[in-house]
Amino acid sequence: MKKVLIFGSLNMDLSIYTDRIPNNGETIQGKDFFLSPGGKGGNQAVAAAKSGANAWIAGAVGTDLYGNKLVETLKKYKVNCDYIKMRRRVTTGIAMIIRNDGDNRIILDNGANDDVDFQDVNKMLQDIGRPGDIFLTQFENDYETTLHSLKAAKEKGLFTILNPAPAKHITKANYLHIDLLIINQSECEFLSGIYPSEESEYKKAIQYFQQQGVHAVLITLGAEGSIVGEDTTIHFVPGLSVNTVDTTAAGDTYIGALACELSHGKTIQKSMEYATCAAALTVSKAGAQKSIPTRQDLIDSKYVEE
Predict the structure, then answer these.
(1) What number of CA atoms fall less than 13 Å from residue 98's CA on the CB side?
(2) What radius of gyration, in Å, describes the C-alpha atoms of the chain?
(3) Residue 291: its pLDDT value, please?
């Protein structure tokens, strides 16, 4: 089994439900408030670990109650935290989440997530990274640090995965360091100018990114499922119909679970099928990391076979 090395954000999610989104300047009543460890990096690491990956994460938190709780929770889920830095001069990252009718709106304060430099990430890569291991990252940390880390991981022979969320422009030179690009429809439109909503647009978008130098392109389509283009082959995996409670960690669960399956040597299509089941079970519960299922949860729920 290969290792899954993650460089990503660590946030404490402050989540509240409201019957409708407030208008400008308006105060309305909410309910069901809760705190939940999150951040794309943390969520994806937990999803990978809960499915059985040998998951490691590089990142940073503040020396406050939220930071201590985030690290404690990651360790509980068996994510290795040796490369998480504790920063005294900044606060832990925060995500303010408004939940409404099965959807959510999120405001971020990056805090310590912006205080991770390339040397912090490269230490993890050089210490424990081996050719064939998986390197997974996103865009919730410093942009240049993320791009330099992708290049270093690629040069060391790791299989690199980028989830460019929130979406930021990528040069052709940096696309060359990405083995697998995982994007949703909005991110696809931002990066390529194509919003893929039908088969011809899926193929056109995939071709665009492959022309930039990416080996494989995976587009998540929400409840519709996901599609991947790898070389000249395209695979579509349909979504599952579930009762949606909270979509907060759905995308991160999909990506972390997929990375886990790839680390076990599964094909991209088989990995997508497993990841789809994991994401479906996640949205049926509220919260971020606590809603992410284990492999046993998926087996017990009959989503996957033992």
Answers:
(1) 11
(2) 18
(3) 85
Q: From CA 274, how far away is CA 293, in angstroms rounded?
A: 12
What b-and-e string marks burial along 194-233, b requiring 16 or more CB atoms within 10 Å of the CB?
Answer: bebeeeebbeebbebbbebebbbbbbbbeeebbbbbbeee
Amino acid at 247: T
At residue 94, φ and ψ (nearest 5 deg) are: -130, 140
- Is pLDDT at 102 greater than 80 in this prediction? no
Mean pLDDT throughout 278-287?
84
Mean pLDDT of 73-91: 96
In the chain, alpha helices (H): 40-50, 65-76, 118-128, 143-155, 172-175, 185-192, 199-212, 250-263, 268-282, 295-300
CA distance 243 to 17: 17
| Total length of the chain | 306
User: Measuring CA to CA, how many Å separate 280 from each of 103, 215, 252, 304?
Assistant: 14, 27, 12, 12
Q: What is the pLDDT of residue 73?
A: 96
> Do residues 95 and 12 lie in contact, with contact meaning Cβ atoms separated by under 8 Å?
yes
Do 196 and 207 meet the contact criterion of CB atoms below 8 Å apart? no
Closest CA to 104 of 25, 168, 36: 36
The two most distant CA atoms of the chain are separated, in Å, by 54
Structure tokens at 183: 């994007």
Give per-residue pLDDT as tens, 210-261: 999 999 999 999 889 999 999 889 999 999 888 777 777 889 999 999 999 9
CB 34 within 8 Å of CB 287? yes
Choosing from 101, 252, 297, 300, the catalytic residue is 252
Does residue 133 have an active-site annotation? no
**127-185 pLDDT tens trace:** 999 999 999 999 999 999 999 999 999 999 999 999 999 999 999 999 999 999 999 99
* pLDDT at 284 exceeding the cut of 90: no
